Amino acid sequence: MQTLFWLLDKDSPEPDIINAAAKIIINGGLVAFPTETVYGLGANALDGRAVKKIFAAKGRPGDNPLILHVSDLDMVYRFAGEVSDKALILMKKFWPGPLALVLPGSSKIPKEVSAGLSTLAFRMPDHPVALALIRQVGVPIAAPSANLSGKPSPTTAGHTYSDLKGKIEAVLDGGPSGMGVESTVLDLTREIPVILRPGGVTLEQLRALVGRVDLDSSITNPEEAIEQPRSPGMKYRHYAPEAPVILIEGAEEKVTAEIKRLLEDYGKEGKIVGVLCREGNQDKYPGSVCISAGSYQDFSSVAAALYNALRQFDQTGVEVILAEGVEPTGLGLAVANRLRRAAKKIVYLA
Ligand code: AMP
Ligand code: MG
């Protein structure tokens, strides 16, 4: 299959391109599109056969559900089993934006979308291209991130194209994703709301609005094996570059010292080592391929840079990557979570 690549004006997407892309989706094809978090791979959410193609193109395990992307609240009322007062408050405050809400499902949506779960996740993306596309399709677009399963999520159309060319009908290029990490997935089907995946809307922001919000144990204990995950995606390793990542967490001085020590050890073995470090620390690791993950004073810069940095290592021939851990507060929780999920090994320095 030939994959079409269309460049759009982010702020006023060309209607003829949006029409052509919407037609592909309505006819059962797949289109990758930009959102403010990462690029998504979209299909008509009402077409189970089209949705199945997403899993095939990505190599995604069939038990990992997709998010329904909507362009207005009416779509949520039409396709969710129930919309609670709390859900409405959250939608009004954070939509369009990086928050996916897990609500009771309904039989109007084919089971492929929810991977057989009785719930459905909804989100309204904050991107003019995504919103125009969903509006033109007229029903929710089911979409996960537009990368090959297991790889870092795509934050540019180029990442998506290199992963999925030949496997999907089209890629819409609306520029780099500003946020850079995926949405927060918040489960509202339990008594107390639970974050299943930390993301662009922080735990602190959610608590300020609705009171008690818990973190799923997979976030607080990343190494814990999950028997029956609420969000099946949580059990798979994700976001990984080709070389194994060793994540070192703890106070900055200890982390720096440990990375230097490891660099010496690997140096003796003649290994090519990559280091993912905070802005300003590049000079501390001579002899390594050092890539900056942004300023650790400003986690939004790290979120925006992270996946591109992880993908860059694949171009360098490094055999192992040592990563400086990020403090898991605010948006740092989402970044720390992605690094932990990308890591083969995590070293905690007390
Ligand atoms: P992605 O953004 O590529 O990671 O894919 C969508 C994410 O949403 C995955 O982490 C899913 O596990 C999560 N998700 C989608 N639907 C549900 C649902 N009904 N319940 C729990 N998590 C969900
Ligand atoms: Mg994904």
Walkthrough of the structure:
This protein is α/β, with parallel strands linked by helices and 350 residues long. It folds into 2 domains: 4-220, DHBP synthase, CATH 3.90.870; 245-348, Rossmann fold, CATH 3.40.50.11030. It contains 12 helices and 16 strands. Strands 1-8-2-3-7-4-6-5-9-10-11 form an 11-stranded mixed sheet, sandwiched between helices. The protein has a 5-stranded parallel sheet with strand order 14-13-15-12-16, sandwiched between helices. A hairpin with a 6-residue loop joins β2 and β3. α1 (15-26) packs across α6 (128-137). It is globular. The model is unreliable at 225-230 (pLDDT under 50). The structure holds adenosine monophosphate and magnesium ion (MG). Residues 64-67, 100, 102, 114, 117, 119-121, 144-145, 182, 185, 196-197, 230-233 line the site of adenosine monophosphate.
Quick structural overview:
This protein has 350 residues and is an alpha/beta fold. It is 33% helix and 19% strand.
Average predicted confidence as pLDDT: 95
Instruction: Summarize the biggest pleated sheet.
Output: 11 strands, mixed
Low-confidence stretches: 225-230
CATH-level-4 superfamily name of the largest domain: DHBP synthase
CATH topology of the largest domain: DHBP synthase
- Strand-and-helix sequence, N→C? EHEEHEHHEHEHEHEEEHEHEHEEHEHE
- Helix-strand category: alpha/beta
- Fraction in helix: 25-40%
Identify the overall geometry: globular
Q: What is the tally of beta strands?
A: 16
* Rg calculated over all Cα atoms: 20 Å
* CATH class descriptor name of the largest domain: Alpha Beta
Strand content: 15-25%
Task: Give the termini separation.
Answer: 52 Å
CATH architecture of the largest domain: Alpha-Beta Complex
Q: Strand order within the widest sheet?
A: 1-8-2-3-7-4-6-5-9-10-11
Compute the number of structural domains: 2
How many H/I helices?
12
| Cofactors, ions, other ligands | adenosine monophosphate, magnesium ion
